[in-house]
Amino acid sequence: MPNELRRGQSANLALATAAFAITFWAWNLIGPLSGSYSRQLGLSPTQTSLLVAIPVLVGSLGRIPVGVLADRLGGRLMFAIVCFATIVPVLGVGLSDSYGWLLLWGFLLGVGGTSFAVGIPFVNAWYEPARRGFATGFFGAGMGGTALSAFLTPRLVESLGRAQTHVLMAVVLAVMGAVMLLFSRNSPAWTPSTESALPRIRDAVRIGATWQCAFLYAVSFGGFVAFSTYLPTLLQIVYGFTQTGAGLRDAGFSVAAVVARPVGGVLSDRVGPARVLLISFAGTAVMAIVLAFTPPPEFFAGTCFVLMALFLGLGTGGVFALVAKLVEPSKVGTVTGLVGAAGGLGGYFPPLVMGVVYTATHAYTVGYALLAATALAALAYTWRAFTSSSTTGGGAAGR
């Protein structure tokens, strides 16, 4: 079995990461174009925030049933299903010309964001416990699909047109789904779950690690999602960048978080996820306080946003290294769905809050202050819950 695992590890990890990146690109199609939607439809900051945040809702809550299905059907089939199911809302968003239709198709576009709950148990089963931090961290780099979207979507729209860009995305999703069916395979160590969904969810909810990791992921990954989806709007409002310029800088933010995520996973294997999370939350709090004072572009503000992304990325890698240590493999898919849902929901509310805050105060100071307070709360909880346990150091923890 170990030799068979080693033969398939790299290829299946690479395929899963690619599928994750493509579906995350589709999931984030609205955010980079939020400025043009706002201008064309005369949207208020609050309406724009809702439009940007709405795909996150389904992408978050949908991870719960998708995680359960991944335990039952396997990652190979579920990746293909998510890719194919995302095609219709992608085309709907590209052809919509009213706020109501954009909200509807944006809501369904959230299906693309559920792929995370497929990939974590898929790659987790391919790797031995000592390397699962690396595996989940590397797979998590697929969240760089948001960077691809931020960088390429506005440029593709300028050169091809909005409808044509979304048709191209639909074709890419179809190809990716076919590739997963034809070339990926489930780990020989994976066995399908035969339990019904509700008992599995109930059992996962009763695991203390589920709630602990859900809170920590809501802060780390939620912070990343919130920034990557809302940052183009913020940069255009506060710093006056064009839609393309804001998209370029948002891509830089996402790339920094993507690079940091596997680093967080590898460091967790070596020094323990708790230490990684302490660094992540402390750095996030400091950067939020600095950004509340609206540092000038390019160098100062840009450096702060990149550092924010690095700290959040480290945290996302650390959380799922923690899941791999605390949860038995047969339950990882269901727990991942719940934890991933919490992370997505953590990214759903901040854009709405930022929109309301800006409408009321014409500044984002209060929003940054709330982020700093939340990161400090996560820091205190991590210190209290994990610094005296085996999750502080490397190696596998007791189940």
Report on this model:
The chain is mainly α and 399 residues long. It is built from 17 helices and no strands. The chain is globular and about 55 Å long. The two termini are 22 Å apart. The C terminus is likely disordered.
For this entry, what is the oligomeric state of its chains?
single chain
Number of strands: 0
What is the name of the CATH class?
Mainly Alpha
Structural class label: mainly alpha
Rounded Rg: 20 Å
- Looking at CATH, the homologous superfamily is MFS general substrate transporter like domains
Q: Could you tell me the strand content as a percent range?
A: under 5%
Proper CATH architecture: Up-down Bundle
Shape: globular
Low-confidence blocks of residues: 394-399
Helix content: over 70%
List the helices and strands and how they pair.
Elements: H1 2-27, H2 34-41, H3 45-61, H4 63-73, H5 75-95, H6 99-109, H7 116-126, H8 132-140, H9 145-160, H10 162-183, H11 197-205, H12 208-238, H13 243-271, H14 273-291, H15 299-326, H16 332-361, H17 365-386
